[in-house]
Amino acid sequence: MVNAPIRTMNTPPDSESSRQLRTTRLADDDAPPFPNPAPELYPFTPRLAIRRGLRMSYLDEGRGEPVVMLHGNPTWSFYYRQLVLHLRDSFRCIVPDHIGCGLSDKPTLAAYDYSLASRINDLEWLLDERGLSENLTLILHDWGGMIGMAFAARYPQRIKRIVAMNTAAFPLPASAKLPWSLWLGRNTRLGAWLITHRNAFCQLAAKWCVARQPLTAAVKAAYLAPYDRPEHRLAVLKFVQTIPLKPADPGFDIVQATAAALPQFRTTPTLLLWGMKDFVFDHHFLAEWQRYFPHAEVHTWPDCGHYLLEDAGERAILRIWEFLQRDSVL
User: Fold this and answer.
1) Contact predicate 323/295, CB 8 Å
2) pTM score of the predicted model
3) 33 falls in which pLDDT band (50, 70, 90)?
């Protein structure tokens, strides 16, 4: 990739000025709740942010304008590993693991409610704690789109660019249907049991969310590692059970308010990248994004699925790199 070499093991230098910005502890001082399951694939030192007694693991890699990458379900910051390696020489990459996901704490329902509102508040707190209040680029996937754009709706003046990949920031399009697998997990005790006790959602996602070729054994293992036992799959379950579909559903008011706020981003540089073999966020969702963001630059891959950064790889990363660089010099 021109001007964006992959650097696999180097971490950004720790200057005195950058140390003064940190109020959370580095992972080598106080390790995340769960160890890095694949250091050769995820060659980073996660950091910790502790809010209300819960430990959030996140990456803070590189220097420059901040690029905030938000994952969905059932992934974690591992999804963005190659993008971080490409961007961190020119941008500051902030990549959290949502509470209950990845290397972050996995609390019980008594300690955390796993609601959309809490997810947005967590993100707002983390960015404020990091001192990131302007020129933010949001890179969004799956649930990351709803979380990130709800935050953006609160603080539109902080957002410089938007990159969306197979995600949503609005109610289910009228032309789309909830897939049966999500319906089962969302609405039935059997589905909940399959998600928590048989890890069905994570296992099937690792198979169904790529279309060009299967994940390698090592990559699949890394995706699954944080969700290794039933009590570690609560976030996976709650993300499915709390999909807001109708006004009575918790979080639906946030979805509606976010959708209503989207027109204010019609002058915000926006990049839409889409795997057209996604069985959830399909062409109906892309069309809705284009309706809200008619100015957006759009690239689609007919042979790619939901895990676009796995299927399209450097082809998608190149589009992001070019978009960020082009806008940086405007």
Assistant:
1) no
2) 0.91
3) confident
